[in-house]
């Protein structure tokens, strides 16, 4: 009965996902430019699915490892690092630099640096702070502020024209996503998903904590480092592909927890992925159809996510 | 048999466990007693590989535990820690099912389900089976955790203060279940316990720790002695034989006086 309920919920979410996608594809479709419009919307949907799943999976795994539901893998200032990388490119090489304009260059550079940074944070800072959530949060805020300020400083020095070009790259956007890179990201995502889902029961056991997991025969330290590498890669590929948008993870994972009321990762992972796709498609619809692309999707997501975050904190405080 | 050879644990430069050697006899209940902070939980964690030791080794049937595959070990040794907080939406039955993970890796077989049912039965948890553990009382939750350990069906079972939060009836019941596990399934049980009389009545062997060292280790009759216990706990303890059991009486001598005063006061009014 309980299981049926969860399966039914998954079914409902899948149907909603299909409905919003179809709606997005067909809304105000102009038959004159059908052959331009459909593929362009299709590409956006594809990148939304890729990024949505990557964010969902990485956030679910990360929260299981740190045993905390208000942290996301980008907590250590990842978004600021992305902004910092983009700003540095403009600052050092200028806006006409291939590093900024050439999508491939930019993607690989960002991917490499972000993965390195995340791995560094996970490897050393976790050990150093003994995974103490408060110290981690504090270091995260400091790192975020540090890279943020450095970026602001450089942004002051570049010309206003350069700044305008730069600004476009600093917001997450599904409007211009390179097809090759999308394919590459999809392949990386699928490989990671296979590794994770092959052994998803062990994620359930990890949720018992270190001692509980070791007691049940899981090689805890090895498993956790393996998963953190996967999280770092997933977070970096999605940020490198569309820009900083990890905050979404917080929103969708918590909604999934509310809906499914379970510790079982198979439900959490699939459920969060679906919710994340729904949220992004709806966000994209609002951006595209309501605001005619005059706002960025990350603004909407941060607004909704921020309000939800405050709601979570208030509710936690009351409990 | 498990033999513990000179294990030591340092926190900073403080030796919280100092050169502890033990051998744990098969098919017996061994109680670990001692004052708060004596190092009981630390010793238990080191024996069950949850904690690295700074020196010494733990041998399971002659082999160092750290050289054995994790999954094999999880079928031989189980441990229930002193405090267990889980912020998970998990039902009692699902929690107990975790005990089968070393065998089924999450894909429960008919046999697994039978063993889970049995553990639920043992702990009288039938009516709570489908309740979330965060909606249970402390004692009910503790019983769910013990049931999970029983479902793990290992030869060696380590329990750190399993009687935490339990009322008298359930404490007695759990000790009887442990005895039954030893008798019927030849399990070896190591239990940290504060109630000295439970240790005295239900265990075969007792190990007493004090300040990180083994103060004494032997059969219960060798350990439950007035002078030995008084030295370990630094208080007056009297031992009486009641219904064939050595029972420790560690009352406060002044208690009677106040009762007397109270009775006198009442009489005057
Ligand atoms: N992580 C730690 N860091 C520093 N000291 C520790 C740590 N864990 C335990 N200790 C110290 O080690 C000593 C032994 O602790 P342990 O938990 O083994 O005691 P115990 O015998 O189980 O006590 P209790 O009966 O209260 O459960 C204590 O003095 C404790 O303060
Ligand atoms: Mg203890």
Name some characteristics of this structure.
heterodimer, A: 319 residues, mainly alpha, 14 helices, 81% helix, B: 269 residues, alpha/beta, six-stranded mixed beta sheet, four-stranded antiparallel beta sheet, 11 helices, 39% helix, globular, binds adenosine-5'-triphosphate, binds magnesium ion
Describe the structure.
The complex is a heterodimer of chains A (about 325) and B (about 270). Helix content of chain A is about 80%, strand content about 0%. With about 325 residues, chain A is mainly alpha-helical. In chain A, helix 1 runs parallel beside helix 13 and helix 5 (about 105-130) runs antiparallel to helix 11 (about 220-240). Chain A starts with a helix and ends with a helix. Chain B has about 270 residues and is α/β, with parallel strands linked by helices. Chain B has 11 helices and 12 strands. Chain B has helices at about 40-45, 70-75, 90-95, 100-105, 110-120, 140-150, 170-185, 195-200, 220-225, 225-235, 255-269, and strands at about 1-10, 15-25, 30-35, 55-60, 65, 75-80, 155-160, 190, 205-210, 215-220, 240, 245-250. Classes of the chains: A mainly alpha (about 325), B alpha/beta (about 270). The interface of A and B includes residues 2, 69, 214, 217 and 262 of A.
Outline the secondary-structure elements.
The complex is a heterodimer of chains A (319) and B (269).
Chain A: H1 2-26, H2 34-66, H3 78-93, H4 98-101, H5 103-128, H6 133-157, H7 160-170, H8 179-198, H9 200-206, H10 209-215, H11 220-242, H12 247-260, H13 265-290, H14 297-318
Chain B: E1 2-11, E2 14-24, E3 29-33, H1 40-47, E4 55-60, E5 63-64, H2 70-76, E6 77-80, H3 92-97, H4 101-104, H5 110-122, H6 138-151, E7 156-160, H7 168-185, E8 188-192, H8 196-202, E9 205-210, E10 213-219, H9 220-223, H10 226-233, E11 238-242, E12 245-249, H11 253-268
Parallel strand pairs in B: 3-8, 3-9, 6-7, 7-8
Antiparallel strand pairs in B: 1-2, 1-4, 4-5, 9-10, 11-12
The structure holds adenosine-5'-triphosphate (ATP) and magnesium ion (MG).
The site of magnesium ion has 4 residues of chain B, from helix 1.
